[in-house]
Amino acid sequence: MYVGQLEFFNSQTPDGLKSFGSALCMTSISLGNYVSSLIVSIVMDITAKGHQLGWIPRNLNKGHMDRFYFLLAALTSVNFLVYLVCARQYKCIKLEGKFNEEEDNEDEEYSV
After folding, report:
1. Which end of the chain has less neighbouring CB within 10 Å, N or C?
2. H/E/C letters for each residue in the chain?
3. Which residues contact 6 (CB under 8 A, 6 or more apart)?
């Protein structure tokens, strides 16, 4: 997934902004890791009220990891729906230098 994301950022940024596109890709990956840690912390705080162990206790055999994974499945489903909406509205950026060179190379290959 990360390789595809980096390739997308590189293909959709102009040549002068390649490092900026790579930085955006790495930033989104790091923010995803922070959000993941935040979700675990929030679930632990909400579910461990009073004398209850919560969904993710120190001894995982006494917890309810199944509920946590159902929560992750629900969040992933919502994320996929948001992705579908964004993907339908996305318009591919055609960079002049890249596509013209590729078209010229294809014409040369077929003219032989």
Report:
1. C
2. CHHHHHHHHHHCCCHHHHHHHHHHHHHHHHHHHHHHHHHHHHHHHHHCCCCCCCCCCCCHHHCCHHHHHHHHHHHHHHHHHHHHHHHHHCCCCCCHHHHHHHHHHHHHHHHC
3. 22, 25
Sequence ranges of the domains in the chain: 2-111
Residues 8-43 have pLDDT tens digits of: 888 888 888 888 888 888 999 999 999 999 999 999
The two three-digit tokens of residue 59, written as one number: 């001894």
pTM, entire model: 0.68
Give residue for tokens 């040549």: 15
Q: What span, in angstroms and rounded, lies between the C-alpha atoms of 3 and 25?
A: 10
